[in-house]
Amino acid sequence: MNNTSYEYLDKINSPADLKKLSIDELEILCSEIRDKLIKTVSQTGGHLSPNLGTVELTVAMHYVYDTPNDKIVWDVGHQAYTHKILTGRRDKLDTIRCKDGISGFPKRSESPYDAFNVGHSSTSISAAYGIARARAIKGEKGRTIAVIGDGALTGGLAYEGLNNAGRSGKNFTVILNDNEMSISHNVGSIAKYLTHIRIRPGYIRTKKFVEKILLHIPVIGNPIRILMLNSKSKLRVSVYRNTIFEDLGFVYYGPVDGHDLRKLIHALNAAKSVNRGVFIHVLTTKGKGYQFAEEDPRGYHGVGKFEIDTGEPLNNKKGFSARFGEIMCRMASKDKRICAITAAMKLGTGLSKFSHNYKERFFDVGIAEEHAVTFAAGLATEDMIPVFAVYSTFLQRAYDQIVHDAATQKLHIVLAVDRAGIVGDDGETHQGVFDVAMMNNIPNTTIYSPCYFDELSMSLNNAIYKDKNIVAVRYPRGSQPYRPKGYQGSDVYSVFGEGKDAAVVTYGRIFANAAQAKEILKEKGFNITIIKLNRIRPLPEAAVELAAEFDKIYFFEEGMEIGGVGELFYYMLKNQEYKGNFELTAIKDKFVPQSTVDEALAELNLDCMGIVNKITWN
Fold first, then answer.
1. Is 514 in contact with 556 (CB distance < 8 Å)?
2. Residue from 251, 388, 269, 359 nearest 19 by CA
3. Which residue of 230, 312, 433, 495 sits 20 to 30 Å from the alpha carbon of 377, by its own alpha carbon?
């Protein structure tokens, strides 16, 4: 790992050590932090561009504020690596996102400096405001700071928090980290509005100039100033040219150069002197300090291991996301009704080419999964075929819209559920293990879970042209797994093998592990048949009837046990008065911690040897 020695960074064990340094020394420290980030992430993988862009901001915050007495709440938290370095976890950075290592996101159990667990977008303002109000009730002093990106500001929850906090947010500060991006380029009216603010450099100067003149007018100057500040009149708007944040009740500072430590420290100190809600607008460059990341901040947002000198990834296999994008382009070229929707994840979901080739049918709605589903429902009422590509972990945010806006109306929308199952190193907040149990109880819903690229194509074709109402097609992160010789995919279910000793029932990529286990079991004298489900809702009755012919059935599921497919499969077996032995291996009532995908599957007995051991043990 990174064993480089640093002049200043090696001496920073807590934020208190920052306060001993001069501004010039802090600037050198920032360069050292960037070097450590690049060298570490190149070997561990992780979020690179977001962290390189917030180095000075993080240093300035810990320099000005009295953390952890002052509470910093990060939005998403993928930009908090510098925060971890400065708060006693410098020597553990090379364990980030690894099994038993530090998390890639802030985590309260990990450090008193982590005020709130995060991982999903747009939560920081609401959480931080809750912390601030609780501290006020208890009579505690100290400021609470929410750090939110301009991408996260496209999420509706952020505005619910702003609306609630603006008028009564004493000792409460919101810092907008504006790098003109989330993961994909920001879209919509909010992005345009922030651009409008950025190109008004004279805004604060004009405001201060007017207030200075008013304060020098004897007797009536200050009352006029206060009247204008509290007025909603056209006069106030014309003089102050208010931002939306001021209209919500915040004192607005900015835009501030997010890579100028002196200006940042000045702005943060100014915010500390105001006994009301403050909104600081900071401009940063995503990927700052690493040429490849600056030139391609989207590509270096979240990375695997890479070569520092060239920026080239060390593993470049084509994955399900890329293949999904190719299938979508092929189908859209033949059918003008097909539309693609993403929630700020154009690159991650493989829709970049679609966005270029079919601009009028591509919609990036920003970080707004709820809106995406209801927007898709609206498209469906006009006979379009909307396909919403979304990570499994983010689909959770749109549950009400799936039920209320799509399912109850029997509208035909397709949910392309990327990163389904274990995702590994991003940990609890990103595991895609809840979508099946979440959708399994929603009427008018069909779910597919392919294991291979050809099955993905079949499933999408069924979802678009054969099935009605809501259809979800869920597929894992990464490339397709091991495929046994002789296996032929099917759009509903497949049977692999002719063993009589037991039936193994599974779906998704766990089939690959079961197929490898079948070969090992055969060497041990156990001959099994694998029933692979491709459509997991509604369950094919023929597959249940086939399984019922076996005295022993083992069901392996990369999802939650409660509410999952295995539970329903067993219920259907009992309805057929099945008298044999049924054993379900799935994720019990817990969250899956960070590790590699292989490590997690092994821990859950869902890898090849876990399947072998489960069967031979019995």
1. yes
2. 269
3. 433
Residue 318: count of CB within 10 angstroms of its CB: 13
**Other beta carbons within 10 Å of 226:** 11
| Coil vs helix vs strand at 136 | helix
Share of the chain above pLDDT 90, in %: 80
* Residues with active-site annotation: 286, 369, 397
The amino acid that residue 616 corresponds to is T
User: What is the rounded radius of gyration, in angstroms, for the C-alpha atoms of the chain?
Assistant: 27
State yes or no: pLDDT of 410 exceeds 60. yes
Q: State how far Cα 326 lies from the chain centre.
A: 23
Q: What's 465's DSSP letter?
A: I
Residue 368, both tokens = 């707004």
pLDDT digits (tens, 9 = 90+) for 451-505: 999 999 999 999 999 999 999 999 999 999 999 999 998 889 999 999 999 999 9
Longest dimension (CA), the chain: 100
Phi, psi of 528 (to 5 degrees): -120, 160
Mean pLDDT over 218-232 rounds to 53
Domains and CATH numbers, the chain: 9-200+241-303 (3.40.50.970), 320-474 (3.40.50.970), 494-617 (3.40.50.920)
Residue 420's pLDDT is what?
98
* Distance from chain centroid for Cα 552: 40
Each residue of 433-442: pLDDT tens digit?
Answer: 999 999 999 9
Least confident window among 223-227, 327-331, 455-459: 223-227
DSSP code string of 13-66: SSHHHHTTS-HHHHHHHHHHHHHHHHHHHHHH-EE-HHHHHTHHHHHHHHHHS-
- The C-alpha atoms of residue 518 and residue 326 are separated, in whole angstroms, by 33
Looking up tokens 């031979």 gives: 616
Residue 212, H or E segment: helix 203-215
Tokens of 172: 């409460």
Q: Please give, one letter per residue, the 3-state secondary structure of 512-534.
A: HHHHHHHHHHHHCCCCEEEEEEC
Give the model's confidence band at 245: pLDDT under 50 very low, under 70 low, under 90 confident, else very high: confident
| Closest by CA position to 143, among listed 278, 280, 264, 267 | 278
For 254-283, the DSSP string reads EEEETT-HHHHHHHHHHHHT-SS-EEEEEE
DSSP assignment letter at 432:
B
Phi/psi at 217 (nearest 5 deg)? -90, 115
Question: Of 339, 340, 360, 358, nearest to 350 (Cα)?
Answer: 340
Q: Is the pLDDT of residue 56 over 50?
A: yes
3-state per-residue secondary structure call for 65-115: CCCCCCEEEECCCCCCHHHHHHHHHHHHHHHCCCCCCCCCCCCCCCCCCCC
H helix or E strand, kind and range, residue 4: none
How many C-beta atoms surround the C-beta of residue 483 within 10 A? 15
Quick one: average pLDDT of 45-66? Answer: 96
Distance, CA of 229 to CA of 370 (rounded, Å): 36
Q: What percent of the chain is predicted at pLDDT more than 70?
A: 89
Strands 470-474 and 445-448, bridge-based pairing: parallel
Q: How many residues are present in the chain?
A: 618
Task: Report pLDDT for 226.
Answer: 52
The Cα–Cα gap between 170 and 167 comes to 9
